[in-house]
Amino acid sequence: MGGLIASAIFLVVLFWIVEHLLGNKRGQPWRRPRMLVDLGLYVFDSVITKPINLIVISVAAIALLIPAEVISWEALKAGQYQGFGPLAKLPGWGQFLCAFLLGDFLLYWIHRWFHGKQLWRFHAVHHSSEKLDWLSSVRGHPVNDILANAMLFFPFLLLGFGPGAAAGAGPALGVFALLGHADVEWDWGPFRHIVTSPVYHRWHHSKDPAAIDKNFASFLPLWDILFGTHYMPKDRKPEDFGIHEPVDHTVLGLLKHPFKPSSAGFGQNLSTPPPLPGASADKSTPTET
């Protein structure tokens, strides 16, 4: 609990400087509407969801590594697992770099999957924030978090990464997730198509029809460019965040949201507004640069 409080204080101070001294919140009060809702989900994630993730990871490691005779139960229990195969033989920096790039690639596709009709209702909780700032990045549903972590972890386990590589790459990518939601107008100028910026990810949260289902990348826009989901216009900034359906902006309401009936139909990607009568339902739009 002490670590949770310390990390929360550090993030509050850091992003107060980013948003209130350098960003769009200059001169505004530190408290915003529904801030306590996001804090409540942060606590729920730390106390409930993360321990479940740890259990899933531990069970997967036992079920896969011991039968394959990669490591014995005694050695695994003693914390002696250091990976296996060619990747485990790389120096620490090499494993970290491979883990970071693989994690970024996997997160792109995991993110796209959660925008599909099967899982969108869980991911919609994260997109329900109508005021986007760093704290809104922690708004999410536990099912989203548990499934995403499992889909990210299994490839790392099967490829033989040591635990240190994943432990380092995860927080590094997490920093960009927090910064991507920050209430600032940073787009990195000439590097805007090389590294994701707050403006880049804020377009992903916009209800602008041209930005729907765009900019899934966590760190490298390259994935969006390669797979046709890149959107970064120069002449305007993202705004009008949220989803196209009613939302109960309480901790309990957001936890129950994926299981509620919707006028748009359960499982439909509700980030997309209903098409006008006679209009095409095709959501694809050309990338603006």
Kindly report the average pLDDT value.
87
Order of helices and strands: HHHHHHHHHHH
Overall 3D shape: globular
- Gyration radius, rounded: 20 Å
Question: How big a fraction of the residues is strand?
Answer: under 5%
Q: How widely separated are the two ends?
A: 45 Å
Helix content: 40-55%
Structural domain count: 1
**Major sheet characteristics:** none
Number of DSSP helical runs: 11
How many E-type strands? 0
Residue stretches low in confidence (pLDDT < 50, at least 5 long) are 263-287
The helix/strand class is: mainly alpha
Characterise the protein shown here.
The protein has 289 residues and is mostly helical. It has one domain. It contains eleven helices and no strands. It has helices at residues 2-21, 35-65, 73-77, 85-88, 92-114, 120-127, 142-159, 163-181, 198-204, 222-226, 251-256. Helix 2 (35-65) runs parallel beside helix 7, helix 5 (92-114) packs across helix 7 (142-159) and helix 5 (92-114) packs across helix 8. The model is unreliable at 263-287 (pLDDT under 50).
Secondary-structure blueprint:
Elements: H1 2-21, H2 35-65, H3 73-77, H4 85-88, H5 92-114, H6 120-127, H7 142-159, H8 163-181, H9 198-204, H10 222-226, H11 251-256
